[in-house]
Amino acid sequence: MDPVRNPYAPGAGQRPPELAGRDEQLDAFDVVLERVARGRPERSVVLTGLRGVGKTVLLNALRSAAVRAGWGTGKLEARPDQSLRRPLSSAVHQAVRELGPAGGAGDHALGVVRSFAQREPVAASSGRGSRSAPALRDRWNPGISVPAVSGRADSGDIEIDLVELLSDLGGMASDTGRGIAVFIDEMQDLGPEDVSALCAAAHEISQTGLPLIVVGAGLPHLPAVLSASKSYSERLFRYSRIDRLDRSAADAALERPAAEEGAEYAPEALTAMYAATGGYPYFIQAYGKAVWDRAPGSPITAADVEVAAPEAESELAVGFFGSRFERATPGEREYLRAMAEVAAGTASDGEPEVDAVPTSDVAAHLGRKPQSLSPARDALLKKGLIYSGERGLIAFTVPHFGRYLREFTSA
């Protein structure tokens, strides 16, 4: 097959040629936008799922829907070592610019964004129990020409400032007859204070009915992160679990792009592809690309899938799995391998591995006390390689990671 015409796109956050199996989320978001535009009460949205299921792709698709509806939008990616203040300022600055109100309310909103962006958080001083006063950081310019608005979003307390910022922006959006949507990827990496502030701001916005929503995406334990911050977070967000595609959607993700190029799959090839990919969108694109390049012609057969599978697996081992494994220290890799072995030991004939394993079983497999393994486990949690959906259980954030560890790595 002509590699130049290969339609598949195995890239991080790169939209596939066919966004299959996500119509439910797209349709629900259109309803949210319309309800908010009409002043109806509605919750912000949180997408959760493993890596490789297409959360970022879907997040971008939802943003495109908001843009088509005439909303102002901005997007940021949370990082564990970065405060929310500056990236959020850039995101909402873009949203205000997209709405385009000149002078008056628009300038006021930009001035509030600037005051929020430039305000340093309150920091403890060397005095006994005292705290230093907030100070404006003049070295960083958010790219806003209007002066900062004194007395709004500039207290230095992130919760107070974020409530004031989003309230003022929501009011400005209401005046224009449109709305603002802020999209946050890797939301689980927000710091505790930022999570608390975001929940408080979302709560305030929902009570006032202003046309502003937050759309977040993160790993499966994100709801627990939000709930630990504010007990009412369960009622603030509409949670949507993004999972692997079912058979019909997975087939569509392969067949429709191929049909656009005049090619097709034999039924047994589609069966082989689903068995290899497990229906995970990233794997579908990776295997689809490899199979297309290896297949001599159309229709693509199960034999073509068998020939191309090692190439796809090798590519995933380096780019998808290996890049994450390399981030772990030797002690952390030992812990990951133990998780993989424990998970494999729980699977019966013909049944898949369990999603989560007890930390006590991992410790027993290594012949160690659970407390001695806490540093490795905590480091892996912070690196986003594993997550804990409930107390005492841990799981990989990447599908098929256990199989990769058993087949491609050695102690």
Q: Topology, pairings included?
A:
Elements: H1 23-37, E1 44-48, H2 55-68, E2 72-77, H3 85-99, H4 105-118, H5 158-176, E3 180-185, H6 192-208, E4 212-218, H7 222-229, H8 233-236, E5 237-241, H9 247-260, H10 267-277, H11 281-294, H12 302-325, H13 330-346, E6 357-358, H14 359-366, H15 374-382, E7 386-387, E8 393-396, H16 401-408
Parallel strand pairs: 1-4, 1-5, 2-3, 3-4
Antiparallel strand pairs: 6-8, 7-8
GO molecular function: ATP binding
Region (Disordered): 1-23
Keywords: ATP-binding, Nucleotide-binding
Describe this structure in words.
This protein is of the alpha/beta class. Helices cover 51% and strands 9% of the residues. It has helices spanning 23-37, 55-68, 85-99, 105-118, 158-176, 192-208, 222-229, 233-236, 247-260, 267-277, 281-294, 302-325, 330-346, 359-366, 374-382, 401-408; strands at residues 44-48, 72-77, 180-185, 212-218, 237-241, 357-358, 386-387, 393-396. A five-stranded parallel beta sheet has the order 2-3-4-1-5. The chain has a three-stranded antiparallel beta sheet with strand order 6-8-7. The longest helix has 24 residues, at 302-325.
Defining traits:
single chain; 411 residues; 16 helices; 5-stranded parallel beta sheet; 3 domains; globular; 3-stranded antiparallel beta sheet; Arc Repressor Mutant, subunit A; 9% strand; Rossmann fold; alpha/beta
